[in-house]
Amino acid sequence: QVQLVESGGGLVQPGGSLRLSCAASGNIFSINRMGWYRQAPGKQREYVAIITSSGSTNYADSVKGQFTISRDNAKNTVYLQMNSLRPEDTAIYYCNADIPTQFGNRVYWGQGTQVTVSS
Q1: Torsion-angle region of 15 (φ positive above 0: left; ψ -120 to 50: alpha; else: beta)
Q2: What one-character DSSP code corresponds to residue 32?
Q3: pLDDT band, very low/low/confident/very high, at 1 (cuts 50, 70, 90)
Q4: CB-based contact 92:48 (threshold 8 Å)
Q5: Would you tell me how many other CB atoms lie within 10 Å of the CB of residue 50?
Q6: SS3 30
Q7: DSSP letters of 36-58?
């Protein structure tokens, strides 16, 4: 059984920063890609950023230069540093992880953490 738990969300003023964390636990030998997605009210879930096991990263155009994804492989944790936050960044942020299992690779999702950017 694998579980992903996000933390670090909250209410922040425009221009502020937040750092999200997502820790994977359970029967894990290794983790391939880890990523962040978000879903704003009334919108579909959208891609934010991913990071490979070797540390290569990719970002959605909307967050390039504003967000930074990183990971600590020893802790099975992925982070999302969010700077210069804007009201349009308000969303529920979800992490996911591509994890090898005896049945093949499987993608697990966290439950989400709310980020609200408002004055």
Answers
A1: left
A2: -
A3: confident
A4: no
A5: 19
A6: coil
A7: EEEE-TTS--EEEEEE-TT--EE
What tokens appear for 109 in the block? Answer: 């999702």
Residue 95 token pair: 């992490």
Kind plus residue range of the DSSP H or E element containing 25: strand 18-26
Residue recorded with tokens 């991913």: 50
Task: Answer whether 71's CB lies under 8 Å from 63's CB.
Answer: no
Per-residue model confidence as pLDDT tens digits over 18-59:
999 999 999 999 999 999 999 999 999 999 999 999 999 999
Distances (CA, A) of 5 to 10, 87, 102: 15, 24, 22
Q: How far is CA 103 from CA 35, 44, 65, 107, in A?
A: 21, 29, 38, 12
d(C-alpha 65, C-alpha 112), whole Å: 23
Tell me which amino acid residue 112 is.
Answer: G
What pLDDT score does 118 carry?
97
Please tell me whether residue 77 adopts helix, strand or coil conformation: strand
User: Which one-letter amino acid corresponds to residue 62?
Assistant: S
